[in-house]
Specification:
Layout (H helix, E strand, L loop, with lengths): L35 H11 L9 H13 L13 H15 L9 H7 L4 H7 L8 H11 L7 E2 H16 L6 H15 L6 E2 L1 H7 L20 H11 L7 E2 L1 H14 L5 H13 L8 E2 L1 H18 L5
Antiparallel strand pairs: 1-2, 3-4
Helix pairs in contact: 6-11, 7-8, 11-12
Length: 311
């Protein structure tokens, strides 16, 4: 790719300020393999507002520096013209914006930057969880002290098991595990309290789809018996005719995500009490088809009432 030197009149960067140059081999201009800490340096540098995405002007800055740092001649990132940037962004987003939301999250950046093999595995969950029921089972397994949070030592155990499963070997040193754990906390611990709450862990362990986000629950179309049966089957994983324990927590987690972005175990507990009070809930800790139907109809009705007020 050649650069138009006339387009670089307003040079805002010098060599030291092209952050990506330091991660390229000076002879081949290929990207070097990044350690977990280096990857986090890159991420933090470009996600300037710390919202978990590289987007807008952050994305423009990253792409300009990423491309210009590959040039053998030391050129300013501003050498990337506006028209080149538009074309570059279109190609880049097509290749790396997996969920097509117009911005890059940390997993998507991990597909682009070469990293140490083990660390990269942590980001490549090729098979997202089928449902939040599986998520809640994993949560219960690793929240060993029942505190309602995944603390650093619990997260380390989770990452160790994840790497073992992915690699089928036990070759990750304790030092590396600590480094990976620290990095994962930097990435996913949004409120920086040194542990992962439910909503933060949900970003690390994504579910394939929150079924309750589908249009049918937004009041646009009428809920059918089949729709309700599908939802019931999704959460009644053991097919015993009721939703209970992790199945119930998974369902409530999906419901809670519709109204709240950041939530913890206490929020889930309070939400459970609120929701179940309205469905003649008995103390057996189970939800029947009838009770699920009432909740879903209430959800669709609520969303339909909200619809006109949205711009």
């Amino acid at each position: 790719m050649s650069f138009d030197s006339t387009s670089s009149k307003k040079v805002n960067f010098d060599r030291a300020n092209n952050f990506m140059r330091q991660f390229r081999d000076p002879d081949s201009r290929e990207l070097k393999k990044l350690s977990a800490n280096q990857f986090m340096e890159v991420w933090s540098h470009y996600d300037r507002d710390g919202n978990g995405y590289i987007e807008g002007t952050e994305l423009d800055g990253f792409l300009k520096e990423f491309v210009s740092s590959a040039n053998f001649i030391d050129v300013s990132p501003d050498a990337v013209s506006d028209s080149m940037l538009v074309e570059l962004k279109a190609c880049f987003m097509e290749a790396y914006d997996d969920n097509q939301d117009g911005k890059i999250d940390i997993r998507e950046l991990a597909q682009l930057l070469p990293m140490e093999e083990n660390f990269l595995l942590l980001f490549r969950f090729d098979n997202p969880l089928e449902s939040s029921v599986e998520f809640m089972k994993i949560w219960r397994e690793y929240d060993t002290d029942g505190s309602g949070y995944i603390e650093a030592d619990e997260l380390k155990n989770f990452l160790r098991d994840l790497l073992k499963e992915a690699k089928k070997i036990n070759d990750v040193s304790e030092d590396k595990l600590i480094e990976y754990t620290d990095t994962m906390l930097q990435v996913f611990d949004s409120n920086k309290d040194g542990r992962l709450q439910l909503s933060e862990m949900a970003k690390l362990l994504p579910v394939k789809e929150n079924f309750l986000c589908r249009q049918v629950f937004k009041g646009a179309t009428k809920l059918t018996k089949d729709d309700i049966e599908r939802v019931f089957s999704l959460y009644d994983r053991d097919n015993n005719g009721s939703i209970e324990n992790e199945e119930l927590r998974g369902f409530l987690k999906d419901l809670l995500e519709l109204v709240k972005k950041d939530y913890d175990a206490q929020d889930l507990l309070e939400f459970e009490e609120t929701i179940l009070q309205g469905v003649e809930y008995s103390s057996d800790g189970k939800i029947s088809r009838k009770q699920l139907t009432m909740i879903l109809l209430a959800l669709a009705k609520h969303n339909q009432e909200e619809e006109p007020s949205t711009p």
